[in-house]
Design a protein that fits this description.
Layout: E1 14-15, E2 52-55, E3 72-74, E4 80-82, E5 87-95, E6 100-109, E7 115-121, E8 135-136, E9 141-144, E10 155-160, E11 176-177, H1 185-188, E12 216-218, H2 219-225, H3 227-235, H4 244-250, H5 255-269
Domain M23ase beta-sheet core: 68-166
Keywords: Signal
Signal peptide: 1-23
């Protein structure tokens, strides 16, 4: 499915007080320096709430592993999620805390020439429609927003130019890009109003150790052991016990077999 780009005549952003971004924050990337505004990326979701940002990029996050927010939290409830641009899926699975995630490496490049990655978090369980190595096109439906990871319903969306081809993000701010640079019209052309139905910092929550590969379960691996079997195994364990190492041991998957699973999936996807 393709979704129309969010244009000037179709959206007004309604930001919570904690989520208002001033035009001054975009000034360093204003014309002619901001190449991202010309990419014409599609907004990552739609439906009720897609105009409301409950958590802005860079806002303080007291008590979290990272002291600032590396993306934006879009206030949607079980709405479709779209690939913002063409690219290849490099992650599609879930973390040990239950958070469902998709990461896409895009054909468009960052200003420094590095690949651009977008990350979509807290997706509805088992709603992901793409797997690692899949090619996606701008506007393709890739999942449904949700609340996995024990958070209120929303879509966390961020953009990175990390060097890794397998971006298990460290969430370092210097590797992230403010999404505002890709949609500057939202700030320059619309009135920003406070959201009256959202408590300040309502969505603030502690993300898990998302840069530890032993705590990430790719859908390719999940399919191999079986969706139902994986869910039963996952739900029977405390979060601290959910590791790829334990899964391989419990399902008798050797290191060689593990590598072969992904090699065959890659070959199949690229035929």
């Amino acid at each position: 499915m393709r979704y129309l780009k969010v244009g000037l005549a179709t959206v007004v952003l309604s930001l919570g007080m904690a989520g208002i971004v001033s035009a001054a924050e975009v000034k360093p990337f204003a014309d002619p320096d901001n190449i991202y505004k010309n990419y014409g990326w599609t907004w990552p979701t739609s439906g009720d709430g897609y105009r409301t940002i409950k958590g802005k990029y860079g806002e303080p996050r007291v008590g979290e592993r990272n002291p600032y927010h590396v993306g934006i939290d879009i206030s949607v409830y079980l709405e479709l999620v779209y690939a913002v641009a063409d690219g290849e899926v490099v992650m599609s699975g879930n973390f040990s805390d239950g958070t469902q995630v998709i990461v896409i490496e895009h054909d468009d490049k960052a200003m420094n020439g590095k690949p651009l990655y977008t990350r979509y978090l807290h997706l509805k369980k088992n709603s992901r429609l793409v797997s690692q190595y899949d090619t996606v096109y701008e506007g393709d439906t890739i999942a449904t927003s949700g609340n996995t990871g024990g958070v209120p319903y929303h879509l966390h969306f961020d953009i990175n130019d990390a060097k890794s081809q397998n971006p298990i993000f460290t969430d370092r701010k210097e590797e992230t890009i403010n999404p505002v640079y890709f949609w500057p019209r939202f700030l320059s052309s619309f009135a920003l109003t406070a959201s009256n139905d959202v408590e300040e910092n309502e969505i603030v929550h502690e993300h898990g150790d998302y840069d530890n590969p032993d705590l990430y379960f790719d859908q390719i691996l999940i399919n191999y052991v079986g969706e139902k079997e994986f869910d039963n195994w996952f739900d029977s364990l405390d979060e601290s016990e959910r590791t790829v190492t334990k899964l391989k041991s419990d399902f008798n998957i050797s290191d060689e077999e593990y590598e072969k699973i992904f090699e065959e999936a890659k070959e199949k996807a690229r035929k």
